[in-house]
TrEMBL record:
Cofactor: how and how many bound: Binds 1 Mg(2+) ion per subunit.
SUPFAM superfamilies named in the record: Nucleotide-diphospho-sugar transferases, Trimeric LpxA-like enzymes
Pyrophosphorylase: annotated span: 1-227
Family: In the N-terminal section; belongs to the N-acetylglucosamine-1-phosphate uridyltransferase family. In the C-terminal section; belongs to the transferase hexapeptide repeat family.
Binding locations of UDP-N-acetyl-alpha-D-glucosamine: 8-11, 22, 73, 78-79, 137, 152, 167, 225, 331, 349, 364, 375
Domain MobA-like NTP transferase: 6-124
EC numbers, comma separated: 2.7.7.23, 2.3.1.157
Assembly behavior: Homotrimer.
MF-aspect GO terms: glucosamine-1-phosphate N-acetyltransferase activity; magnesium ion binding; UDP-N-acetylglucosamine diphosphorylase activity
The protein, known as: Bifunctional protein GlmU
Matching InterPro entries: Bifunctional_GlmU, GlmU-like, GlmU_C_LbH, GMPPB_C, Hexapep, Hexapep_transf_CS, MobA-like_NTP_Trfase, Nucleotide-diphossugar_trans
Pathway assigned in UniProt: Nucleotide-sugar biosynthesis; UDP-N-acetyl-alpha-D-glucosamine biosynthesis; UDP-N-acetyl-alpha-D-glucosamine from N-acetyl-alpha-D-glucosamine 1-phosphate: step 1/1; Nucleotide-sugar biosynthesis; UDP-N-acetyl-alpha-D-glucosamine biosynthesis; N-acetyl-alpha-D-glucosamine 1-phosphate from alpha-D-glucosamine 6-phosphate (route II): step 2/2; Bacterial outer membrane biogenesis; LPS lipid A biosynthesis
Amino acid sequence: MPLDIVVLAAGKGTRMYSDLPKVLHPIAGKPMLAHVLDAVVDMADASTTVVIGHGAETVRAAFGDRKVNWAEQTAQLGTGHAVMQAAPFLRDDATTLILMGDVPLIKTQTLIDLVKRAESTGFGLLTLKLDDPTGYGRIVRNVSGKVEGIIEQKDSTPEQLLIGEVNTGVMAINGGKLKRWLSSLSNNNAQGEYYLTDVVATAVNEGVEIATQAAQSLHEVMGVNNRIQQAELERAYQRGYASTLLAAGLSLADPERIDVRGTLRHGKDCFIDVNCVIEGEVTIGNGVVIGPNCHLKNVTIGDGAMIKAFTSIEDSSLAGTNDVGPYARLRPGTQLGHGAKIGNFVETKKAEIGNGSKVNHLSYIGDAVLGSGVNVGAGTITCNYDGINKHQTVLADDVFIGSNSTLVAPITVGKGSFVGAASVITKTVDENSLAISRSKQKNVAGWVPPKKRN
């Protein structure tokens, strides 16, 4: 049966205290609405409509690459009214699956199971049993166990308040019936709004059986209305991702202290210490060790590499058996060959560093190509920018650069050559040569240093 998906994403999110539309606030580095859309992207024969309102253009622009229909709710008149805006996109012969854009941890399998139940009766309702159902609408059943309706807490009797099964807001309904029931909704209530939950009672009155599906956990169906709930779902997501990594054999020093804001793929016998942040697409090989407080974004790391504490690596690749950090920064375009080493307080950018080469201390290597076996002394920099254009520095195999050297690009240092410490190199250095560029030292006898002024 075809499937029409409606995602309600029109809310302002007043309690977020933000100019950003609520559904664009992130969980694990991704907008909440993106989590919901990703959960349904692979569902068969599906068409998706997103109902937007507050910050509509901002939301639309953030998802310009998504193949979805957009419906706008210009007046916030309740969930029923929001679904009405999507009605032109709903097919009578399809099942309509209604989701919330601020419920980011909903699972695909749960939705598949709910849709299957809805196809058998024409109406499926996702529910959850809670030990403390305070604040939720209760699912009222008759003596035979069939759903009779949903009663909000403020309208519940003392007996109904004892009901632990609650409404999650997620429904799957036959499209033709849904549109007919929507047209009969009334806003004759204190809030002057059209409630989607009212269609449950209408369906029951017509003899339609409400089939229910249980959610797997509270966090799966929990919405975000404030920063506290956002933080709670962030930790729930990270805890779940860490459990998946542990189950797949990755060793974590503390699964409560890792944040994955993208995808992490790993080999065997890897270890990640505390407080590491993983963003984008990160792949690590076998036997990789990542020290505490590291940040990796869009990185590939080969077998046997060691990334020491407080290292940041972005849009870079490491071939393997590398030793990096502590306190190193590998900026976009860095490529390390096998066994290449980057030490403490070294920054690289758009640098190809060959097998076994070392930049051990306090250096900047940008727009550079280093061959194999190169040694760069402490305090060396490549002057790659002339104020308008970037230029490249090339250090051939087995080059040795003395400490505190300045390499003014464009420049090439030939194979096997040495550069003396504290040199400023502005010209090409031939192979197997020694380049020294210093002023002659002059000692002034009887020098009297300046005194402090009163």
